[in-house]
Amino acid sequence: MMEFLIQSVWLVPCYALIGGLLAVPWSPGIIRRTGPRPAGYVNFIMTFLAFLHSVLSLPATWHQPPQQIFIPWLNTAGLDLTIAIEVSSVSVAALVVITGINLLAQVYGFGYMEMDWGWARFYSLLGLFEAGLCALALCNSLFFSYVILEILTLGTYLLVGLWFSQPLVVTGARDAFLTKRVGDLFLLMGVLALLPLAGTWNFTELAEWAATANVDLKVITPIGLALIAGPMGKCAQFPLHLWLDEAMEGPIPSTILRNSVVVVSGAWVLIKLQPVLALSPIVMSVLVGIGAVTAVGGSLIAIAQIDIKRCLSYSVSAYMGLVFIAVGTQQDEAALLLVLTHAVAAALLVMSTGAIVWNSITQDVTLLGGLWSRRPVSGIAFIVGTLGLIGFPPLGSFWALLKLASALWETQPWLVGVIIVVNALTAFSLTREFSLVFGGKPKQMSERSPEIHWPMALPMVILLAFTLHLPLVLQSLALLPSWEMLNKDVALLLIWSSIFGCSISGVIYLGNAIAKPVRLPWKGLQDLIAYDFYTPNLYRLSIVFSVDIISKVTDIVDRFVVDGIVNLVGLISIFGGEGLKYSTSGQTQFYAFTVLLGVGLFGVLMSWQFWGDQFLDLMYSYISVILNS
Amino acid sequence: MQLQYFLLLAAAVFCIGIYGLITSRNAVRVLMSIELLLNAVNLNLMAFSNFLDPLAIKGQVFTVFVITVAAAEAAVGLAIILAIYRNRDTVDMEQFNLLKW
After folding, report:
1. What is the 8-class DSSP label of residue A482?
2. CA-based nearest residue to A250, from A170, A150, A306
3. Confidence (pTM)
4. DSSP states of A280-303 as a string?
5. Which chain B residue has the Cα nearest residue A581?
6. Do A586 and B21 touch (CB under 8 A)?
């Protein structure tokens, strides 16, 4: 039975995909009688099947060597593209997390999308997303991972653009697609360049190859940089971070998925590629650099946002930055643990803010307030999500951050500083958001804002309970780092930074001592952070501007030079005809003249060989005689 | 008295005829130029028949035919000019360009 479950684990993505396909008939205009809701229920059942399958097969993979399943796909001209599936405890655990969070997001969607007409589209896209993520978790081939990443990019575009009648949604979807495409393009270059070097795209074989490979640093460094460009786009790292913020225009249930597991898809590939990336020290330091800059910058920007959803999106970028640091310092296990704990906590936070967005009039945190008495469930969920995300013992992320930080304590202490700063800043920003939304007195916008109904509350409470129990789960699976191995100083520092961030933020935003909105003494700095370090302007001035100019120049060249040459041929023909027609003068004498001229020329031409040369000689001798005389 | 002189004379007459045919504006003068051309041809025929074929004198027979045809052609030509003149009240060759572009 267990063997069968493991052998058929490739069905998990298929369930989701079938669910997505089954939802299509409830699009408007195909099945009208039942309304769109059955699309959601069908997807829920299929996702539940997938969840059940992966949960049941998880114990069978525990403490077992990873199993490989090969499905032949394309074998031509010496190129062997076989779909490689790896069934290990890590990949099946990833399946459980993905299907579990998607299950909750779908139930949440029942409530959130209650009045929406786009259920069929929404749920079939969620199915596509889940299928892509599950396939990525199982996929053991770099090439097919790239293919799946592209499918996820398309899925992001479609999901963000669900409410396509709003212009902001359209630009958000477009930017998300294009930004990820830029990363994916570089990733494709890296993927293709890696094959002739390594001879394989299989992650396991790549790791074996990388362990003994002796490659030129000048060759492997650009390849490594290209390989991290894809995850940079996926994980919303600087400078490809803007899309995640704009993608917040999409519906919340898909945001739950995106903020918790979709951004991780890039990190997942990165973790699997880590042995290859480790071949070049430059690539590793670039990884750490990008991660550190994004982590600090993202958490700073999050503090300055006033949109409730955007506050969260930058924290996600920041935590993905920490994952980049972990991969860049070869802390794979810490990275995976961080990904898991972040996914659960971030999903809970998004659910809680989604509950507020759903039936408050505004998304602006400065206009909200005093919701604690009306929305205890959302408030508690927000608190637990916050504590789960920052380093607060005994909840999940504390252990992940601690594991990462204590591994870096001896080698790169400045990175520990980065982690602690990011932790404190995230604690500050989340507490700020909580205080502004739930603390204080109700304002005009939040006076009528009751608690949400059960389809949204239920998944939130389940996830809340899971977040609280995550340490117990981790402990029972022996995933917690052992206490003796850990660095107590780091633990204390982490706890203090969390307390520090939370309490300062609480004092500022809950108390009345400081006037709100809070003004920094340096307005320039505040604007810099609030406007995302002016990255959108920078892009507009550099890339958007230059692409605009280049396309205009190309257009001019195309219009005037290329088209011009072709049109010139036509024009020459027209004017040639127009000009030549005047030779048809209607004068009989002119015709007679031309006929005689033609016949004369023809005669000269035909008889030239009989007298021409002698004629020329004669002419030449006459001319020379004249010239000499 | 050699063949070449006759031939050169005939060619000169022919050229004058061509010049007149192309440049004259009066239609009657065009007809007269055509007569010059035919006469140049007749001179050629006569010269060749005298110098190269004095026994069979096929050239002289040809010449008789050419004179006959020339007379017929002149009659038809003058008739055409008269017909045009009745319609258009002129014999200026440059006015007869109805079939231009």
Report:
1. P
2. A170
3. 0.81
4. -HHHHHHHHHHHHHHHHHHHHHHH
5. B101
6. no
Shortest distance, CA A606 to any CA of chain B (angstroms)? 20
The stretches in chain B having pLDDT less than 70 are: none
Mean pLDDT of chain A: 88
Q: For residue A598, which residues of chain B lie inside 8 Å, CB to CB?
A: none
Phi, psi for residue A511 in degrees, rounded to 5:
-80, 175
Find, among A169, A153, A165, A164, the residue nearest to A269 by Cα. Answer: A153
Q: How far is CA A47 from CA A7, A54, A501, in A?
A: 19, 11, 39
**Residue A389 contacts residue A430 (beta carbons within 8 Å):** yes
Its ipTM equals 0.88
Which two tokens mark A361?
Answer: 């009039």
A189-227 residue pLDDT tens: 999 998 888 888 888 888 888 888 788 888 889 999 999
DSSP reduced 3-state for A272 = helix
CB distance A518 to A303 below 8 Å: no
Q: Which of A584, A587, A592 comes nearest B94 by C-beta?
A: A587
- Rounded to an integer, what distance in angstroms lies between the CA atom of residue A463 and that of residue A325? 27
* Tokens standing for residue A88: 């290990």
- Residue A214 half-sphere exposure, CB side, CA atoms within 13 Å? 0
pLDDT digits (tens, 9 = 90+) for A407-446: 888 888 888 888 889 999 999 999 999 988 888 888 877 7
Phi, psi of A307 (to 5 degrees): -85, 130
pLDDT at A558 over 90: yes
Instruction: List CB contacts (< 8 A) between A581 and chain B.
Output: 101
pLDDT of residue A4: 83
